[in-house]
């Protein structure tokens, strides 16, 4: 049985007087896909951002692949290479091709030479089925394709875990499927993933575990069938009920 690849314990985050994370424990096993749901403002994004130290947790511990992320002696830039992140906005350089964007990450972050960076970038683009778009600029790609380039940029660095923060929220509905398919394939290739998203269909179909957060705490967690089909906590029931009414 593979062990936890990511282990966060007792995470708290304050923004001034605002107490956003109130003691979150999250263990993610290797190859697991954990899907985080919860109302707006419940702390989902903040949790993800703490997990790769885009935000500094106020208290708690985080280890990724055995590395203590909060230890002052840890080289955070090196540690971050083990954690890929995909955001709602794709953040591609508009003046660089898809290949250039992915290769740049390999050159800057990993110090690879141009030829090797480009070869690896091509492989990563191929994994999201964009090998034939390598020479296109972001402006020549759809939003869904741009997001897949962003995914390629992250996986090219060979992370041990990938964090997705609402990866399809900025996309037109017809483009969502392609990005979710790329995520699904990534999951099938054995990637460990933590996903914050409103795509409940994806959660039902692809998640190993669904976590419901409210008010900065994990209220309930379990397999998708249990969380969506038979939630135990009143707050989870109310949230799931609301989503279902919205989609009715
Ligand atoms: N940098 C920041 N400075 C101050 N407050 C912040 C900051 N980032 C987040 N917050 C606050 O923390 C709370 C939780 O925000 P967060 O984005 O984590 O929630 P969320 O569950 O991801 O919500 P949503 O689904 O709307 O994205 C909110 O009240 C938000 O305003």
UniProtKB/TrEMBL annotation:
Keyword Oxidoreductase included in the entry's annotation: no
What InterPro entries does this protein's entry cite? AAA+_ATPase (IPR003593), ABC_ATPase_HisP-typ (IPR030679), ABC_transporter-like_ATP-bd (IPR003439), ABC_transporter-like_CS (IPR017871), MetN_ABC_transporter-like (IPR050086), P-loop_NTPase (IPR027417)
Q: Where found, per UniProt?
A: Cell membrane
- UniProt-recorded Gene Ontology molecular function terms: ATP binding
User: Which Gene3D superfamilies does UniProt cross-reference here?
Assistant: P-loop containing nucleotide triphosphate hydrolases
Which keywords does UniProt give here? Amino-acid transport, ATP-binding, Cell membrane, Membrane, Nucleotide-binding, Transport
Q: What CDD domains does the annotation carry?
A: ABC_HisP_GlnQ
Report what the protein is called. Amino acid ABC transporter ATP-binding protein
Tell me the Pfam families matching this sequence: ABC_tran (PF00005)
What membrane topology is given?
Answer: Peripheral membrane protein
Q: Which ranges carry the ABC transporter domain?
A: 6-240
SUPFAM superfamilies, sorted? P-loop containing nucleoside triphosphate hydrolases (SSF52540)
Q: Could you say which protein family the record assigns here? A: Belongs to the ABC transporter superfamily.
């Amino acid at each position: 049985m593979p062990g936890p690849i990511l282990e966060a314990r007792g995470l708290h985050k304050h923004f001034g007087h605002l107490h956003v994370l109130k003691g979150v424990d999250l263990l993610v096993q290797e190859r697991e896909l954990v899907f985080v749901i919860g109302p707006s403002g419940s702390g989902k994004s903040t949790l993800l951002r703490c997990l790769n130290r885009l935000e500094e947790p106020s208290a708690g511990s985080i280890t990724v692949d055995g590395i203590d992320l909060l230890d002052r002696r840890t080289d955070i830039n090196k540690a971050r290479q083990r954690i890929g992140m995909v955001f709602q906005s794709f953040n591609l350089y508009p003046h660089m091709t898809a290949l250039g964007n992915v290769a740049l990450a390999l050159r800057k972050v990993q110090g690879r030479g141009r030829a090797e960076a480009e070869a690896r970038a091509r492989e990563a683009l191929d994994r999201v089925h964009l090998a034939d778009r390598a020479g296109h600029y972001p402006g020549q790609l759809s939003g869904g394709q741009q997001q897949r380039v962003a995914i390629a940029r992250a996986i090219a660095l060979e992370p041990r875990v990938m964090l997705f923060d609402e990866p399809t929220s900025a996309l037109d509905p017809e483009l969502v499927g392609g990005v979710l398919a790329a995520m699904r394939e990534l999951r099938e290739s054995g990637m460990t993933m933590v996903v914050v998203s409103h795509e409940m269909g994806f959660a039902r179909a692809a998640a190993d575990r669904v976590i419901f957060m409210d008010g900065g705490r994990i209220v309930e967690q379990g397999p998708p069938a249990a969380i969506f089909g038979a939630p135990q906590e009143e707050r989870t029931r109310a949230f799931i009920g609301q989503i279902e009414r919205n989609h009715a």
